Amino acid sequence: NENEFDDQQKVVVLSQLPKTKGFLGLSSLSLYQGFWCPSKIVPNVISFQTHFQAHDQDIILASKPKSGTTWLKALVFSIVNRARYTPSNTPLLISNPHQLVPFLEFTLFADHAIHKNSAAVKVPDLSGIPSPRLFSTHIPYPSLPESVKNSKCRIVYICRNPLDVIVSSWHFGTQDRTRSQWTNMEEYVDKFWKGEAAFGPFWDHVLSYWRESLEKPEKVLFLRYEDMKEDTVAQVKRIAEFVGFRFSDEEESGGVVRQISEMCSLKSLKDLEVNKTGKFMPNFENKSYFRKGGVGDWVNHLSASLAKRIISKVNEEKLKGSGLTF
Ligand code: A3P
């Protein structure tokens, strides 16, 4: 396939990209198009960028890791498929949300073909997926494929307080101590501080989607994890309206929104057998996606002075004048 070889040419050049220590400590991060991409994922990102054809009805969920991606996937899947499934027969009972809403760069554009000792990515056939197709990505807005930007497909972005993102990432990255190279949280925070976090810098990631949501509110819905925790029902209604699946008055009075919110709560999902034992990728156990799910857990891990320093750097230096603050 000619396409694969084109991609491969680019991959060869990519071995020259600047590198830093990785998210899980195992794989490095490479600075690609201004963001720190897990090095092994760079070929997938290139293939996604080159070959993905968005449809107008597609819904793409975007986030920086550990911002509430799994939760958002469960909610959007439930909203869009509520005519087919109820909480008693939803596929969420037997599948992790990441299986129902696959990552474009980690899962779909991840099948490597070996050619001349290096890897090229096979282009997947996504044409048979029923509409609306639900996908997800961690890459920042500027690096999305042109067809995503130029079609009418919708993007739902979720962000979270950076202190909680740091703490959640730390737990995710160190839970398997046999695989993790991270032993020192200060070093981890320092990397975040320099912007060297997976798909970071954090501030560039959130700003890219924030700006787009202001410029094209019909294209990008910008959500905050904290708002979702505070009033899940209100945010679920907002998401449903945005993706074109508004709840009817009957549904609202019949408790459908509340049922979906409860079904997708951390406790419900975490207690399911599939999320206690399964894996959705070889190195990623389903249970690692469900921890405390709170707001402000950083107080248990970061000193008040360090937290203040991080937040003021983010707000006063990086997000200044954008209208977005944490
Ligand atoms: P904590 O580590 O702070 O508990 P992501 O899905 O982007 O990888 O983010 C994972 C974070 O979201 C984890 O945060 C996890 O506990 C939390 N989370 C997962 N499912 C959730 C849900 N249904 N409701 C609220 N938070 C959830």
TrEMBL record:
Keywords: Transferase. GO terms for molecular function: sulfotransferase activity. SUPFAM superfamilies: P-loop containing nucleoside triphosphate hydrolases. Residues 56-323 form the Sulfotransferase domain. Its EC number is 2.8.2.-. Gene3D superfamilies: P-loop containing nucleotide triphosphate hydrolases (3.40.50.300). It comes from Morus notabilis. InterPro entries: P-loop_NTPase, Sulfotransferase_dom. Belongs to the sulfotransferase 1 family. Pfam families: Sulfotransfer_1 (PF00685). This is Sulfotransferase.
